[in-house]
Amino acid sequence: MAIKMMKVFCIMVVCMVVSTSYAESALTCSDVSTKISPCLSYLKKGGEVPADCCTGVKGLNDATKTTPDRQTACNCLKASFKSNKDLKSDFAVPLPSKCGLNLPYKLSLETDCNKVK
To answer: In angstroms, what is the C-alpha Rg of the chain?
Structure first.
């Protein structure tokens, strides 16, 4: 349990550092981490997407109505995947559609967040 909490803390710290680069965004990496935290088990192991994960993903989508917010969310998610090797980006790609969302960009490490509109 302590290791899991430490990983979540590390993700949040990375997200906070990344978010300072996106001052025009009202969204923070801490907000993103909070929204996706129910998805951690799915993002590690795959399988069924928990209902609270979809609630978080939909909440994150609702919170990203501006281009700067979407770019911040994209960069925060990429930073989380880069800093936590237990998370599998292959599980992130289909996550929005599994939650009934159609995002205008792919949740992938290859996504250029600066091009997200």
So the answer is: 13
